[in-house]
Specification:
The chain is of the alpha+beta class and about 250 residues long. The chain has helices at about 145-155, 170-175, 185-200, 215-225, 245; strands at about 1-5, 10-15, 15-25, 30-35, 40-45, 55-60, 65-75, 80-85, 95-100, 110-115, 130-135, 160, 210-215, 235. The strands form three sheets. A six-stranded mixed sheet has the order 9-10-12-11-13-14, with helices on both faces. A four-stranded antiparallel sheet has the order 1-2-3-4, with no helix packed on it. Strands 5-6-7-8 form a four-stranded antiparallel sheet, with no helix packed on it. Strand 6 (about 55-60) and strand 7 form a beta hairpin. Helix 3 (about 185-200) crosses helix 4 (about 215-225). The longest helix has 16 residues, at about 185-200. It is globular and about 55 Å long. The two termini are about 40 Å apart.
Length: about 250
């Protein structure tokens, strides 16, 4: 959220697509600005003037680096959205899908899938697959541009982002549904996403790798222990996997 002299700005998502809500605090008039569905992540500019009538922010995706956007206050109580130096997808060769996998208890788990079409449609082709997950602390899983991810996409990989329970993609209820004694739901959601991708022909277990950073390392490690046949490799970056030592106040499980 950001506060300006004549507007309150809220950032969020709608169907995993970034949205900005601009609201006039005087008469509650509000304008919902929906980003292009080929963008997946907001990047706010810092130190914007309180008196400014123009909100600046950036959007990105696994394909596209940060691109400029803004929301401009017009006359009266209306808002107008406009774009500034927005770099669109270079061609129709890139695809960013929002899909749902059905978890063990029947809950539909959202997932973002990125791939290139000019290297061949990955459905039924069994491409190399990297699945990223976090699902902790009610935080959103970043689906933004990274040079290494773009390199994999250009080489024909499929990138999937599992928005498992425990994260904040669907609000506080989604967070509580994968927290505490319900933490196993996060792992089941991740397994459902991996299985869905295999069933749809995006990849197969022998070409599938998982990635989890920090607290996201726990669902990755638990899936590898419970369903080792589902993946070929796992990347754990500074993972939180020794919970007992963490509870006892030993950082890093030492």
């Amino acid at each position: 959220m950001e506060l300006f002299e004549e507007a309150v700005v809220l950032y969020g998502t709608k169907g995993l697509v970034p949205v900005v809500m601009v609201m006039d605090p005087q008469d509650k008039n509000k304008k919902l600005v929906l980003c292009d569905d080929q963008f997946s992540q907001f990047h706010k500019l810092h130190e914007q003037e309180y008196s400014s009538k123009q909100l600046k922010f950036y959007c990105s995706s696994p394909f596209l680096p940060m691109s400029g956007r803004c929301v401009v206050k017009q006359t009266g109580d209306t808002f107008r959205s406009s774009s500034v130096d927005v770099r669109r997808s270079a061609s129709r060769s890139t695809c960013l899908d929002r899909v749902f996998a059905v978890s063990k208890d029947g809950v539909h788990v959202p997932m973002t899938v990125a791939y290139r079409l000019d290297t061949g449609n990955p459905i039924g082709r069994n491409s190399p697959l990297l699945v990223t997950v976090y699902g902790c602390y009610g935080e959103l899983l970043p689906v933004s541009y990274q040079a290494e991810a773009a390199c994999l996409l250009n080489r024909g990989w499929v990138l999937a982002y599992c928005h498992a329970r425990g994260g904040g993609e669907l609000g506080r209820k989604w967070y509580y549904a994968g927290q505490g004694t319900a933490k196993h739901k996060t792992i089941e959601d991740l397994y459902a996403c991996v299985t869905w991708l295999h069933q749809k022909g995006f990849s197969r277990p022998s070409l599938t790798a998982l990635y989890g950073q920090s607290a996201g390392g726990m669902p990755v490690a638990m899936l590898c222990n419970k369903w080792p046949e589902a993946v070929q490799a796992a990347i754990l970056k500074v993972p939180l996997v020794n919970l007992l030592s963490s509870i006892r106040g030993r950082p890093g499980g030492e």
